[in-house]
């Protein structure tokens, strides 16, 4: 069963936001930053992609309390970028997006750089044939 975040009540009822929604917001905010090649989904995400299932929250782990959230992002960066600069921009953008859209306070956004995208196709990486 998916975890639901109780983000408040008003005279009309209770508003609940799923952790999946917070993950998707974080993922989209992270991939808006120049230098982020992709989110790193790991083994499970890789299988899902091969099956044609697009998981918008891959590479994101969230822990949500009553009023606060902590986010871990697992990313792949483009070769040649300044990783600390890209990471800081991701942190700022993710924090702003989650706080604006959900009203939750973001206490931390941890960036885990999993790989560097060299920007090459598999064909380019193959060794040239010797005649």
From TrEMBL:
Stated name of the protein: Alkaline shock protein 23
Family indicated by similarity: Belongs to the asp23 family.
Listed InterPro entries: Asp23
């Amino acid at each position: 069963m998916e975890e639901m975040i109780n983000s408040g009540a008003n005279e009309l009822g209770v508003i609940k936001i799923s952790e999946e929604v917070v993950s998707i917001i974080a993922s989209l905010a992270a991939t808006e930053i120049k230098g982020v090649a992709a989110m790193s989904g790991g083994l499970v995400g890789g299988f899902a992609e091969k099956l044609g299932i697009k998981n918008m929250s891959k590479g994101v782990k969230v822990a949500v309390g009553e009023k606060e959230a902590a986010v871990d992002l697992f990313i792949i960066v483009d070769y040649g970028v300044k990783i600390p600069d890209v990471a800081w921009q991701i942190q700022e953008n993710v924090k702003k997006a989650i706080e604006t859209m959900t009203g939750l306070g973001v206490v931390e956004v941890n960036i885990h750089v999993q790989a560097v995208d060299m920007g090459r196709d598999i064909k380019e990486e193959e060794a040239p044939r010797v005649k």
